[in-house]
Structure formats: C-alpha cells, structure tokens
Design a protein that fits this description.
Shape: elongated
Strand order of the largest sheet: 8-15-10-11-12-13
Structural class: mainly beta
Number of domains: 6
Radius of gyration: 26 Å
Largest sheet: 6 strands, antiparallel
Number of helices: 2
Number of strands: 47
Oligomer: single chain
Helix content: under 10%
Distance between the termini: 40 Å
Length: 663
C-alpha cells in the first residue's frame, strides 16, 4: 500500500479521539544484531505502529560506526530504505536490497542483512522509533525551487519545537531550527548543525520566518532549498497537552537552560523524561549528547551517552551527568562544556517516560507485572518479563536468604527488604532490555523475581531529604492516589517505612507508619504529614523518610481496576474475603495490630492452594525459606477468602490487616 495513503489512515485514526500514550508514539528499543549474511531477518517488536509513518534512528552501541536514520518517506518500490547519517553531511545512500529496514510494521519494524550500522551479528544496538503523530512528530519531503520565502506545509498540527533538515540528493550539513535558538527571540535568524560541533550562528537564508502550525518558511540556501535538490525534514512537537490517560498531558519538550557550572541546577519539565538530546549553542567543540533511561540514566550513578554528531561508541566516562525526577532533571556535572558550562545556553529535546501520568491505563496485568525464575544467563535478561522492568524483588524461596529490592532508577545497586542496611553495589543488576533484566550466573532456577513496570498502579521516585516538611510529585497520574508507599534511605542505614491507606483502620493513616523490614505493629508517628494526593505525597520534617542530605527511594502503589489493589480489613470470628475484582497472582498481607507478625507473600507461580491445601508462604521482612500453610479457603475471579482462626499472621479475630494484590 502507498505510504502516503497509510499516513492518511494513521492520521484519521488519531483524529478519532483515541487515547494516545507516550508508548504509542515513541520507543527506545535495544537489541542484539543477528545478521550473518545478506537476507538475515530480525523482527523488532516494539509496539509502535509505523504504518502511518515514522522514523527509526539506530546506533551501534559498541562500535565506531555512523548513526542510521531510516524513515517511511524515503522508501523505494520494493520496500527498501534509503540511509541517512546524523553524523555526516553526505547525501542519502541506497537503497540496498535486503539490508537495513525492509518493512515498517504495525508493531515495529523488520531488519534484514548484516550491516554494521543496523544488524551485525552479536553487536549491541539502540533504536529510537518516532511515530508520525499529530502534536508529537512528523516528516516532510520536498524538492527545492531556489526561491526565498518558500513555505513547506506540514501536518504536525501545532507549532514545531524543533526542525531538522537534510538535503538528501547531495552533500550538505544538517540544518537545525529550535525554538530556543537566539534565546528564543526570532530563533529563525540563527542556525546550528546537527552533524557538527559549532555554536549557533547567524542565518539569513535558511529559515526566513518563524514556523507556524501549518508550515515553515525557507530561504534559498543549498542546505534547505536549492533548486531541483531533494530534502527531508523531521519536525518535533512542543508541550501540547493532548496525551496520556486523560488526553491532557505533555510528552515532548523543546526547551533550554543556562548552565551554572555547579552541580544542582534544576531544569523543570512537565514530566519525567526517558530520552533527552542536549547541545551547547554558545560554545564550539561541543557535541549533541543523547541520553535515555533504557541504556542507563540512574539517579546517583553514571550515565551512558551517545552523540548525534559523532559515530563513536557509547560511553559514560564514569560521570553522572543528570539526575531525573518527576518534574524534570538536575545537572550533576561541574563546569562541563557539553552540559553545564557557566553562562552558556543549552537547548534540548526531551521525551516523557512511560508512567501512569503519560501512558494509557494497562488493560492486561501481564503487561506490567511478571514473575520468573532465573535462567542463569550472563547475557541480559536472566529474568524474563515481557516488558522493561522498573522495579524488582528477588528471593530464593527454598533457602534462608535475604530479599533484594532494586529499580531502574537505582542502576546497578540494590537494597534488602529484611534489614536496614544501606544500598549496596550489584553489577548484575542491569536494565538495558525491553523484555527483562539482570545478567549473572547466580540468577539461576532457584532464584525468583517479582517484576513491575511503571504504570498507574506503580511508581518509583528517588529524592534527597531536606529535613523540612515538603511534598514530592509522583507520576501515577491524575486518576490515581498512592495508597501504599515504601521509603528507604539509600546512602545510610535506616528502616523501611511504609504508608498505607489502611493504617489505623483507615482513619488519619498519615499519622502512622509501619516498618517493612521488621515484624512490628504500626507506630503512631506522623512522618507523612498529610495523606497523598493524585499529584504528590507528603513528608514531615521527621528524619525517618526525610533526613537532611540523605538519599531516599520511594515505591508507590495504587489501585487500578482489574490490575492491582490496596486494601485493608478487620478480622472477625468468621472467614475474611478480600475483594479485588480479579484473581490475584500476588498478595502481600500484614497484621498491623500485633507485633512479631510477618509480611506475608504468596503468589500463583509458587502456588496458591484453596481449602485444605498447602500454600507456600514467604515473609518479606525475614530471611526464612517458604513454609506451607492451609490458610486460604478459596480463590476466585474476584479475590481471595481467608480461613478464620488462622492465628495472628493471617486472620486473628479483632486485628487489623493491610494488603496489596496484583492480578
């Protein structure tokens, strides 16, 4: 089918009022090449529908080979794509039969061949897939006419935040327009080159007027509008609030900041980012940095960069460049020319992370929660999930061993849920996979991992304590209030502290907490200051979860219909029914009235047996191996029934319990 017709079909679908999440229009996908010869095929299934148009930008992570930009507008009649390289001024090359991308699919794209830029055997690659979507991204092509004032119409449906233009029929630089060139005043009077390291420079014949929501105006420079030459432009949106579960969120931002030369500069965004490209526009010999959270963008660890203008391999130099949070990012480098030189202006293009705030509400629980025994692979993933893992718990159920808790934001580090120890380094905890995590031989078939993806029911936040009462923004989304929160000091010893909406029987629960790493009952101390809302959670000046200068992590849980639920109940003399509107695969249960009671963990992978059967039960606050108990009366499509008279760990008459379940 003609690609122009496919584009029209895609635009019509988008105009129909469908909810569009960031996961529908952008995806960072990492893969290992399998090309041993021309004609070798690899299907990349990333969930992006490219049949309506799009761009796939690919880089070999470990070798000095060029970036490869392949799009739906530059395809020959056989489906073969023409190559462009962001680090080169060369004309497009190809197409090469049976090489690079040979099909743009409704769930990704098809690679063929063994080219080093896209699919060489056993080489590691990253791909960034931009879907053609109104208010987010689009592509234009034209043939130059040499006339100043040439208007190129576009279908972005909004004023662009940035435009990349490349002559494809001949050699010339990539010309970039960005809304914050010239400090945002008449930015069309300046230009900068994507394939170079120069600072911004005056321009009179690249762009001759400010872009509008329907077109952009060109001069007659050979880079953009030489007579009879052919061109492509990539247009990026800017902060249009039309995405996410309520179609009111912004998912792309084209902005700027002024460097201070000191660590701690905060840059505000309307979202937590997953991808960012940064360029110093005041200083030459500076590159176009690309960071993304799939390859590594931890809070408090080294960040791995690629450069759009250089064919070099991925590197971190052992440096932490930025820390991300729910409202933007913080610069961590001191005086770095490329990201934080004092007084210099930096432009960026940032794309929102997949969170409850920016993604569609999950329809299938298996898309956001999985359990798996390890396979002992030293190549990621040792645990298979089917999705990018953001938070994981690990335990050997049949052994007396500690629990580990780790998250993408922590990078190669972990905490232990059954004690108060500080975060420890764990090089096995790697995250650069779209279908699992971890790579180490000891992650064998005796080790079990429970894995979550961030969504409306689960969020992860790293923050630094201040010692003063405050609020911290989260990304569960405006439809979801945190109903359970775990906090833990990362850099020092300290208990895990838990907020749950059912503390104190659900009355002023913010005045109570309970420890995750002990068997204690709830404690009447107000470390939360107030109940959470759909945008923030509260911390008091109490040092348990907010000591000045300490680094913390918070894991937030919420109810999502058919997916997850936080609940509480008081036991009576009879059986207790936990109503969930789903059949749980995972249940966490705690008696908050009586001390010396475990944090009970059961799941369907190890087995939940009703009636008189034994259910293998673990304790999240202890190291003991699982034990069998006959405490489950029944399990159904709407929840679990607990037998009466099972003692204080399960159903003690008169005691209050809190719980969390996942389908």
């Amino acid at each position: 089918m003609d690609l122009k017709l496919l584009s029209a079909i895609g635009a019509a679908g988008a105009a129909g009022g469908d909810v569009i999440g960031v996961e529908d229009v952008f995806k960072t996908y990492v893969y290992t090449g399998n090309g041993t010869a021309q004609g070798t095929v690899q299907q990349i299934v990333n969930g992006i529908d490219n049949t309506g148009g799009g761009l796939v930008w690919i880089k070999n992570r470990g070798q000095n080979v060029s970036h490869m930009l392949l799009d739906t507008e530059r395809v020959d009649g056989n489906g073969d794509t023409y190559e462009l390289k962001s680090d080169s001024s060369n004309a497009q090359a190809g197409p090469y039969s049976g090489m690079n991308i040979t099909a743009f699919n409704n769930n990704g794209f098809k690679l063929e061949g063994n080219g080093g830029n896209t699919n060489e055997n056993n080489k590691e690659y990253v791909s960034w897939n931009f879907k053609k979507q109104e208010k987010f991204f689009t592509i234009c092509t034209w043939t130059g006419d040499g006339n100043t004032g040439r208007v190129i119409s576009h279908d972005l449906g909004s004023v662009p935040g940035a435009i990349f233009i490349k002559k494809i029929s001949g050699s010339d630089d990539w010309t970039v327009w960005h809304r914050r060139l010239n400090e945002g005043t008449n930015p069309h009077t300046k230009k900068i080159y994507l394939n170079g390291t120069d600072a911004e420079a005056a321009s009179t014949n690249d762009f001759t007027a400010a872009p509008t929501s329907t077109g952009f105006t060109l001069g007659n420079d050979g880079r953009v509008n030489e007579s009879s030459s052919d061109y492509v432009a990539y247009l990026f949106g800017h902060e249009e609030a039309e995405f996410g579960p309520n179609s009111d969120q912004k998912i792309i931002s084209c902005g700027s900041y002024e460097g201070t030369g000191s660590a701690g500069l905060s840059v505000t965004l309307p979202f937590e980012l997953q991808y960012i490209m940064i360029k110093n526009i005041d200083r030459a010999s500076t590159g176009w940095f690309i960071f993304d959270s799939m390859r590594a963008l931890p809070v408090g660890g080294e960040d791995f960069a690629l450069f759009a203008n250089v064919n070099g391999s991925e590197t971190s130099w052992g440096v932490e460049f930025i820390d991300i949070n729910a409202t933007g990012f913080t610069l961590k480098t001191v005086g770095n020319d490329d990201t934080n030189k004092n007084g210099d202006t930096f432009i960026y293009i940032a794309i929102a992370a997949e969170t409850g705030k920016t993604s569609k509400v999950p329809e299938n629980a298996s898309d956001v929660f999985a359990m798996d025994y390890g396979n002992g692979s030293t190549t990621i993933p040792a645990f298979d999930s089917g999705f990018p893992v953001d938070f994981g718990l690990l335990k050997r159920p049949a052994s007396s061993t500690e629990w580990s808790a780790t998250s993408r934001l922590q990078g190669p580090n972990y905490l232990v849920t059954n004690d108060d120890s500080a975060e420890a380094a764990g090089s096995a905890y790697v995250w650069d996979s779209n279908v699992g995590y971890t790579a180490v031989s000891w992650a064998d078939s005796a080790l079990l991992s429970w894995m979550w993806k961030r969504n409306a029911g689960l969020d992860c936040i790293c923050y630094k304590g201040t010692g003063s009462a405050r609020t911290i923004e989260h990304s569960l989304g405006s439809n979801n209030v945190p109903e359970m929160i775990w906090t833990k000091k990362r850099n020092n010893t300290g208990n895990w502290h838990v907020y749950h909406k059912g503390l104190n029987g659900g009355t002023t629960p913010q005045n109570y907490y309970i420890n995750l790493n002990t068997s204690d009952a709830q404690t009447n101390t107000a470390i939360w200051n107030n109940q959470p809302t759909s945008s923030v959670f509260h911390l008091s000046s109490d040092g348990h979860a907010n000591s000045n200068g300490d680094d913390f992590i918070a894991i937030l849980f919420s109810t999502v219909s058919g997916i997850s639920k936080c609940g509480y109940h008081t036991c009576g003399a009879g059986n207790v029914t936990l109503s969930m509107d789903f059949s749980p695969r995972f249940l966490l249960l705690k008696n908050i009235s009586t001390g010396s009671t475990p944090w009970v963990v059961i799941d369907t992978l190890r087995g939940i047996t009703a009636s008189a059967g034994n259910t293998p039960t673990l304790n999240l606050s202890g190291t003991s191996q699982q034990s069998n108990y006959t405490w489950i009366q029944s399990i159904s499509s709407s929840g679990i029934e607990i037998n009466a008279g099972q003692g204080d760990r399960f159903s003690n008459d008169g005691d209050d319990f809190i719980w969390y379940a996942h389908a």
